[in-house]
Amino acid sequence: MKTLKRMRKDLILYVMLLPGFIYFTIFHIIPIVNMKLAFEDYKIIGENTWAGMKHFNTLFSSPAFLDVLQNTIIISSMKIIFIFPIPIILSLLINELRFGPYRKFIQSISYLPHFLSWVVIAGIWITLLNPADGAINVIRNFFNLPSIDFMTSKEHIRWVLVFSEMWRSAGWDTILYIAAILKISPSLYEAAKMDGASTFQQMRYITLPAMVSTVITVFILNLGFFMNAGFDQVFNLMNDSVLSVIDILDTYVYRIGLMNGQYAYATAASLFKGVIGLILILGTHFISKKITGKGVW
Amino acid sequence: MKKLSLLFLTLFVLILAACSDKGDTSTEPEVNEEGKTVIKVVFKDDGPSNPEAVKFYDALEVGLKEDKGLDIEFELVEVAQGSYAEKLNLLLYSGTIPDLIYFQGGDEQIENQDLLEDLTPYIEKSEHLKGILQAHNKTRLENYPYLLWVKNIDNKVPVVRTDFLEQTDSGATLVKNPTVENYTAFLEELVAKGLVKNGVTVAGDIAELDFIFNDAFGVTSSWLQQDGAFVYKKVSAAEKDKLAYYSELYSKGLLDNQYLTQAWDTKEDAFYNNQTGVIVGTNGKVVDFYNSRQKQVNGETATLTVLPPAKGVSQGYGAISVTKETRGLAISSQSPNKELVFEILDYLASPNGLKLDSLGYEGTHYTTNVDVAELNDKYYSEWFARYWEPMNADLGVKVSEDTPLLSAPAKQSQEAVNSYYHEDNNFTIPEDMISQWDAMENLYKEYAADIITGKKSIDAFDEFVTKWHASGGEQLTKYANENIK
Fold it and tell me: Contacts of residue B205 in chain A, CB cutoff 8 Å?
């Protein structure tokens, strides 16, 4: 009775919660229930038939699967290592900009690439990296360095993925960190200044420690998506010459699962990805809790 | 708190129930308020949100009523944006199975679940359809009687601007005697004369280039006889020679050095902007489009000429797969209106049906003057036949020679591919080998790209062959030798 009374009092809040609840139920919870398809053979009409571990056995026995798994891990690791710190650094730098309109301008242009689709971004990067007249190679040629065909080079293509992802997401990802920075009391900076702390020292001893909890949360949540190495990005930047180094789990599942209508097989691969993501999230959460006392919850 | 949890749990169960419907498989024909039978159709780009599609099906309803006395209402099914084959499969797998389905791949998985109707008995007793089938349609239907697509074979042909061809000395020689050497000489002269930056470009891979050169190098079918046994074309000695030649074209700058990152639209732009001299496009309508776009961009004199396939060991635009249609229309085996749906397909093969589908609407796309149809600009800029396009179709009216259905180069392209028609001996890859097949194809694509672009020497081809066999090729070759008759 007490609960109902309290709910009636906060009715408007519950109504506001409803769309989010429905969204997560339809797009995130029901798919988990339907993951049982990984153990079945799908029938459009009639009941699915039990297939046990058949799809997992096919998945793990395929040499191509092990190759794409290796690519996924390498590309995701590169992205975590090289992209994750960039928004943190960028937000610290933006925080140091004192002239309001200039700061807003920098923030706005850094957010812009986030709103472009990967089809457009791929077009931009392919043009930019063109060995004949792309801007990057023109600059290289200016310094008497030979042109590099980055898009078809097995040595460079993963770095193209890392830098294009960095360009697209670094600005947008600063939002959370800037919000964390804005929460810091200005009195702390004033006190530090009076004590003679330099800008770098203020950053090191005030701003960064205040961001730690946000950084850890974002890091742990990012690890949950570790096996998503970026389908749209890879799909649009892939070409025949670099298949063996950037073919990832998602593009493999797309070809075998979706293009060939092998949905149960595709579900098995997705379930595998999901389980790895869950293990990574829980593992990092508990390790972080033990070391820093902070985690996702 | 318990009540709150209960509330959310109830909500969750309700949403789950709402989302778990596998679809309606009613066996009763659906009839609208006016007593018309509702026929559900799913077709690429022809959803209910497309006013042109709605108008076409309205006109088809009128034609069916007037000519056949059939009371039909078409209900167009919307397919989500994106790759049609992928989104259609998602639609069908969700349990929504329209009466008439247009496939652009992915039909075999649906057929494996016995959801497509065998069209053989329907075609046998058809009034018009059996008469417009072409040789390749008949063989494909014998092998796979679930998909119907009466169009010309879809091989691609190389095209070049006629004025560029005439400005070169080697152009006339190439047309007369299209040897591989003469092809090279022509591409070299196009570049040397400064007409274009590179001789030929393709969209992303060498499949389009193969339409010109495969037969000349002896890659005349999917499985080639080599030392008394069948060998897959991509691991054959002929393929090695062909890749060595492509590599030579690439190193001389005759094959666009950026072909790997070209998409179909940038490939066409390069052609219209005179960056490249030759591109390869599907015979018929696509060549027609290239021709009109080229004239639009570079003036009325910039018409196209279709180049012959290279001549060598053999000559042709490639072997025609007759295992099945690669795209086409199927009738759902679950439809309560199968006979009626086929009657519609048969009507579309009749003179009146073909006239509506091929010419558009009288007064809008053409005018008739004493039984001769004169097509107008609106026809050329917006109309295309959705269904059947048989060669020499009887449309019930003559089309004026001043306004032909297809431009001269497009017509020439159709005649050219038909004159080189020869059947392939390929077969559908067994389902349990699909993931290995994917790996083998990727292996080929990467080695081919590396050899052509000079990252690997042609000697690496032997290493590729060994890896290909180890990746499942051995098993597939054994299967091929046991099954190819």
Answer: 240
